[in-house]
Here is the input.
Amino acid sequence: MKKNITISLIIGITISALALYLAFRNVPISDLLVYLISINYVWIFPAVLVLLTSFVLRVFRWQIILESSAKVSFWQAFHPLMIGFMINCILPGRVGEVARPAVLQKKENIPFSTGLATVAAERVFDVSMLLILFSILLANVNIDPNLDIVFGKYHLNRETLVSAGGGTFKLLLLLIVGIIMVGYGKTRKAINSLIMSIPYLFFFSGPGFKKKIQKKVCEPLVSFVENFTSGFALIKHPKKICLCIGLSVVIWGLSAFSYYIMALGCPGIELSFAEITAHMIIICFFIALPSVPGFWGIWEAGGVFALVLFGVSSKDAAGYTLANHAIQMFPVMIVGFVSAMVTSVNILQVSYEKREKGL
Here is the structure.
């Protein structure tokens, strides 16, 4: 396992370095360094404070989603959430989304499938907010159809942005349909019946083999479905849903405000809060494309694309986007590492345990 982890990290670092090269190959390094030196880094402190406040609210929101099936304290929810986000910053494939319920299972004995369902429910709120903001963006911002930034195999332009938005909308529909299917009693019973009928597909085998399939495959799958369903118990509580929606609005507002505060210390970034929010939304959709750990490179390319829309020079856009990316990532990584130390969680082992099991 250690060999696989080391190889994965080396590949991730290599790809990230290549991604950054692709994003900044047209920006003179000397100009970029001069810009980074000119930033007033005093603004980092309030920007990080606002960012971490948004994560505290994420913890409260996750607590509300979880408490419908299992009550946990603030810190019992805080550590798995920060560890999960930290893992997303250092490993590919957004494995942190799987690691979070794995940590919850390990430390609080909450079924993995239940925790995974609550993460999926949380993503419904985030994706919904993102799509609402994206719709407002497309309605109010005129995106030059000729603006095109090449990043590896991707062409970051209006068409790519709309395509990413469409893919995100399909993901949201899939999540909602899945929640309805497992949350609705009759549908869930039908799914469980289909699972329990799997042994009958092996009509040519003896009863011993069928019984083994039922015990080793069918019963664990049914248990997974039932535990997964309990993670969506929130749908029975409209008041909690409204509270989660309200928290989601504040979370995304604080995230954009963190971007805005950082922009105050960056020369050449004289944009309104609404424009900075649009910049954040565009980055969010571009990093939905398959990318490297921490989204290095694709984040910068998307950020430059977004800022050029508002008349920011490529040099200023590249400098601000790179600095802001670091501000958005490193505090989360540091807090996540501290949470891993406090809870004595081997983050790499937790990440790969679930991968190796095919979850």
In short: The longest helix spans residues 314-343. Residues 28-71+111-339 form one domain.
